[in-house]
Amino acid sequence: MLGTARSQIRVLARDPLLLALILVIFVCIGLFVIYPLVRVLLASLQDREGWTLANYALFAERRLYRNALVNSLGVGTLVGVLSVVIGYLAAFVLTRLDVPGKTLLHYLVIVPIISPPFVSAVSILFLFGFNGLITKQVLGLQDFSIYGFHGVVWSQVLTFAPIAYLALRGVLASISPTMEDAALNVGASRWQTFWKVILPLSLPGIASAFLVVFIESMADFGNPLVLAGAAFPMLAPQAYLEITGTFNLPRGATLAVILLLPSITAFAIQRYYLSKRQYVTVTGKPSTSTSKIVSGPVKWLLYALVALFAAVVLLFYAVIVIGAFTRVWGFDYTFTLQHFAYVFDVGFETVADTLTIALVSTPISGVLAMLIAFLVVRRFFPGKGAMEFGSILNYAVPGTVVGIGYILAFNSPPLILTGTLAILVLAFVFRYMPVGIQSGIAVLRQIDPSIEEAAQNLGADGVTTLRKVTIPLIAPAFFSGLVYAFVRAMTAISAAIFLVSADWNLMTVQILAQVGSGRLGVAAAYSIVVIVIVLVAIGVINVFVNRMSRHTSMVRF
Amino acid sequence: MAENVRIVGLSKRFVRPDDPSRPVLAVQDVSLDVEAGRLVTLLGPSGCGKSTLLRMVAGFEEPTAGEIWFGDRRMNDVAPNRRDATMVFQSYAIFPHLSVYENIAFGLRLQKLARADLARRVDRVLEMTGLGGMAQRAPSQLSGGQQQRVALARAIVMEPRVLLFDEPLSNLDAKLREQMRIEIRELQQRLGITSLYVTHDQVEAMSISDRIVVMNEGRVEQVGTPTEIYSRPANRFIADFIGKANILPAVAAGPSEIELAGVRLALADAPALAAGAPLTVVIRPEAIAIAAAGGAIRGRVARAMFLGSIAEYLVEVPGSEPWLVDSGNPGVSPLFAVGEEVFLTPAPAAIHVLV
After folding, report:
1. Residues with Cβ < 8 Å from B109, sequence gap 6 or more?
2. Less Cβ crowding at N or C end of chain B, within 10 Å?
3. Does the predicted model carry a pTM greater than 0.80?
C-alpha cells in the first residue's frame, strides 16, 4: 500500500500544479470543514473549570433537552415518511402516467425548493395563525394554536417533499419500463407487478430519499423557530437559543453534537450502504414509456392527489404574494406597497449584502466543486477517499452545527473572521459545494476516461486537458451546481444566523426577525424579493447554458 | 522520422483495491523489439496484458519494472503528452464537443502551428481517411466506421514517431472491420510509421502484421511472422489460440517418422527424434486430405457441416481423439454423410511437432 502511495506521488510530481492544487484543497477542507466540527466537539466537553461530561449529563437531568431530542427525531421521522409518500406518488404520476399538465405540475411541486425553507411557515401563520385566514376569518376559531408538533410537521412536509420528489423521480427514471412489461408478460397482475417488481426496485431509492429528508428535517432551523413554540422544544433552535439567549457556548455545542449524531448516521447509511444497492435497469438513453400497471380510475385518483398537493403549494405561495401587498393581515386587507417600500428603504442594505455574498460564494463553490469532482474521479493520490468524504461531509452536518463551529473556530487568533464577509462566503462555499461535487462526479464517471487520455496523447498537459476537454464536457454539471449553490446561498439561514453581523446581514435573517416581531407583511415582501432574485438568476444561467451548448457544436450524450 | 521501439524487461503489477496482499501481475518481464517502420501486433486473449503493455508505451500506466525506448531516448519518465506516440483508442475517444475538423486539429493547435500549415495537414489527412466532406460534422452525426476514421486521422495527423492501436476495430461490424484493416495497413505502410497494434482477433493480426507477438497471462509466448506463428506454433496454447488445430499425442518411430493413431507417418523436415519418445503434434484441419478410399488413416464421419468455402468434418479415428478436417471447395461434390467411412491423409509438411 505504501508503495502504491509512493508511486502515486511520483506520478503527481510530474505535474506540480496538480500536486499544489491537491494540497490546497486538503488544507481548505481541513480548515473550513473539519476544524470547526472539532471545535464544536471540544467545546461540548468543556465548562469553565475544564474537561467535563457535565454538558451531556444535562440530557439526563433536564427534561427540556431530552424533549428537544425526542421532538426533533419524531418530527424528522414523520416528515421523512410523509415526504417520501408524497414524493413517490408525484414522481410516479409525473414520470410514468399519461396525464395532462405534467410540466406545470412538475414546476409547481418543486417551487418550495427555490424559496427560503421557512416560507411555508410564514404561509401557515397567514392561514392558520392567531389571525389566520382560515382559522379566524373562515372558521372563526378563537383559541386555535398551530404552534407545536403539527405546525412544524406540515410546514416541513411542504418544504421537503419536493426534495424527495426529485430524488424519487430519478429513481423511477432508472427503472426500465421493460421491467413492467416483463412482469406482465409472465402473468403478473398489475398489483403484483407494482408490489413485486416496481416497489422492490425502488426500495433503496425510497430509503435513500427518506434519509435525505430526515437529515434536512433534523437540520431545519427556520420552520421550528417560527412554528415550534416554547412548549415544543427542538434541537436546532434550542442550540441557537442557548448561544444567543444565554451565551452558553458549551451547552449550545453539546446540543449541536447531539443534533449531529443522527444526521451523520443517516448520511453514512444513505451514502455507504444504500447508494450501492440502488438498481439501475436503464442504461444509455432513458426511454419514456407509459405505465400499464394502473387502471383508469386509479390513474385519475393518483393524479388528483398530486394535483391537490400542487394546489396546496400554489395556495401557500399565493398567500405569501397577497400577504406582501396587504396592509395588516387579519384586520385590514387593503392593498399596500408599504412592505416593499420598507424592504427597499430600510432593508436595502440587507438585499445588497445577500446578493453580494451569494454572487461571491457561488462561483467559488462551483469551481471548487468541479475541481474536487475531477480529482476524485480522474486522479489517483493518497487520501483521495478522505478528500471526497471531507468535501461532502458538510452536506450531512446541520447548519446550526456549522454556524456554532465557525464562531468557535474563527473568533480567536490565528484566524479572526467573525463579522466579515469572508466568514459568510467560506461557510456557504463549503456548505453548498457537495451537491456540485456529486453531480460533477456523476457526469465525469459517464465520460469515457480515454477521451482525456486522447487529449494527453495528442500533447495536452494536465491543465490544457482540463481546459479544452474536461471542462466543456462537465459544463452542464457545473451550471447545475451553480444554480444549487446560488439558491442555497440566497435562502440559507441555519448556519448564517450565527455569522451575520451589523456589516453583513442576510434577507433570510431579516425575514425571521420580522416574523418574530409579528410583521408578517414585511417578511412576505422579503420572501418575494428572494424568490424573484433566485428565479432571475436561474433564468440567466439557463440562457447562458443554452447559448454555450449551441456554440460548442451540439454536445449530446 | 520512423524509430524503432525497444521494450526491455517490462513488468506491471496492479494492486487490487479490495485485496492489496494479492497483486495482479498484468505484464511480466516482456522484452520486445519493433523495427522502425514496421507494424507489430500484440495478440492474445482478453486479460493477457496486451493493452496494459500498450498503455505503458503510451505513458498512461507506470511500469513496475523495465524500460521503454524510442530510438535512443528512454521514455520511462517522459509524460504521456511528450511521448509523440499517438493512439487510436478502442472507444475512439473522440471529443464529443468538437467537430470532426477540430478533433483532428486538436493536437496541432497545441503545437501553435501556423494557420496555413495546420489547414494543409488536416485537409490532407481528411482526404487520406476518406472524411473529405465531413469536416464540420459533430461526432454524434457520424457512423461507427466514420468515428473510427476520425480517431485514426487524429492520430496520424500528428506524424508521430510511434502509432499505437488499442483494439481499434473491435466495435465495428464484420464487413467494415475487414475493410478498415486493409485501409489501416495501407496507410501505415505508406506513411512508414512504427506501429504497435493490440488485438484479440487472430485474423486481424495475421492480415495486417509484419510480426505478431502472442501473449498469454502477462508473458510473451511467441514472436514471429504470421506464417511462422500459424504453421510453427511454439506450444499448445498458441496452436489452440490461433486458428483451428488438431493437437494429438504421437510417438516417435524413427529420426523423421512418427506413429500417429497406429499409423506410421513420415515428416517433411526431420527434427531428429529419439525412437519411442512420446510427443505432441499439431495438424491444421485444412492440411488433411479426406477421401472415400485410399488414405493413411481410417475413420468415420461423426459430424459434417457445410460452411460455404469449406466443409468441416469431425472424424472419429480409432485409437485417437476425433480429428477436425476441412475440405476446400465443397460445393462441387456431395458431402460425406455422417457415419460414412473415410480415409485421412495429413500432408507431411503440415505435421508440426511440439518440442
Report:
1. B118
2. C
3. no
